[in-house]
UniProtKB/TrEMBL annotation:
Protein name: Mechanosensitive ion channel protein MscS
Gene3D superfamilies given in the database record: 1.10.287.1260, 2.30.30.60
Protein location: Membrane
Lineage start: Bacteria, Pseudomonadati, Bacteroidota, Flavobacteriia, Flavobacteriales
Gene Ontology MF terms in the entry: mechanosensitive monoatomic ion channel activity
Transmembrane segments: 24-45, 77-94, 106-124, 145-166, 172-188
Organism for this UniProt entry: Aurantibacter aestuarii
Alphabetized InterPro entries for the sequence: LSM_dom_sf, MscS_beta-dom_sf, MscS_channel_2nd, YbdG
Domain of life: Bacteria
Keyword vocabulary terms for this entry: Membrane, Transmembrane, Transmembrane helix
Signal peptide interval: none
Amino acid sequence: MNKIQCFFFDVFISIGLSDSTAKFLNMLTLLIITVFIFFTVDILVRKLLRLFFAKLARRTRTKFDDLLIRNKVPRNIAHIIPIIVAIELIPLVFKDYEFIKYPVQKLLHVLAIIISLWIVRSLLNTIKDYLKSLKNFKDKPIDSYIQVFMIFAWLAGVLFAIAYISGIEVKTFLTGLGAVSAVIILIFKDTIMGFVASIQVSINDMVRIGDWVTFEKFGADGDVIEINLATVKVQNFDMTITTIPTYALISDSFKNWRGMQKSGGRRIKRSIFVNMTSIKYLSDEQVEELKKIQLISEYLNTKQTELNSFNKDHNINKELLLNGRNLTNIGVFRKYIDTYINKHSAINKDMFIMTRHLQPTTQGLPIEIYAFSRDKRWENYEYIMADIFDHILAAVPYFDLEVFELPNSHSFKI
């Protein structure tokens, strides 16, 4: 190296240049040569690494090496080698200019730290993409963990860079850093909270990518498409994207529909409100008329025989329907609904089925249907539920009942 350095210096001296001019031109020439070597080594190493990884990707069945190329790992590794070469050549170039040599050396070392961080980031992105391609990790918040590693990597890189530039040992620098830890915690508050939330969400299996969640506070109702350190992205059913802070998953209440999707059916829980003034006992003639309804004809025959036997055994005066035991139109209607639901082909018979009265309200008597549809897809579920209530609402008049409805202009027509 000394011979090369002296060669150019001697050439400039031999053509009659002054000592100071020869030193400057010698430095400039060596700098140009170093820059040329830097870019040449960078291009050659990059091509060689790219060729090596391309051949490796073709020979192996795993997708990991393909992902290494996609995330530019070979390219980033190639950048570190010419920097190492440049660091070795800088003392030769700036031998006569010490005040330039040290800043340039520090700059190259900082650049080496940055490129090392790029390499780490590329490797972590490759690991993330590879894990996401595996079935067992598709619904895991891999992004959150990768971001945590990158935060620590960048923090370590910045600390080493500052320590190297300032000439302070990393240990001493970290000791002094404790004094401003409160400020750092304040700056990274959301990141720390998001990290803790990500761990709790993962350990407790609260949310997975692909889950259907409803988060009323943030107006989110759709599928989780991304979970990272700071946010959870939900694609709503209207195709909009709602971003929710990760820590909100453990601090606020939300609904995850995964249990429903894994179960045997989706719950139907809806009521109709019957006008209570239309509820009454049924006479024998009305019972005979209702026996024409096939779903409850057998029930009415059995029930009527049972009630007649009871009333006769107890000498009940049936001149007044209130006396003894009697069928009511609301009771027969409830039995009709229950039988209809139990025979409906779209209802899961292995899950809970119930038709019940709820507490009377100012809007009438609620009759609630509680059952589960076999088909859990939203559009089919809504169709099944609408089909059931279309039939029930149309059946109400056959039982001489009325559905409660708030008064309107038609209510006052004579």
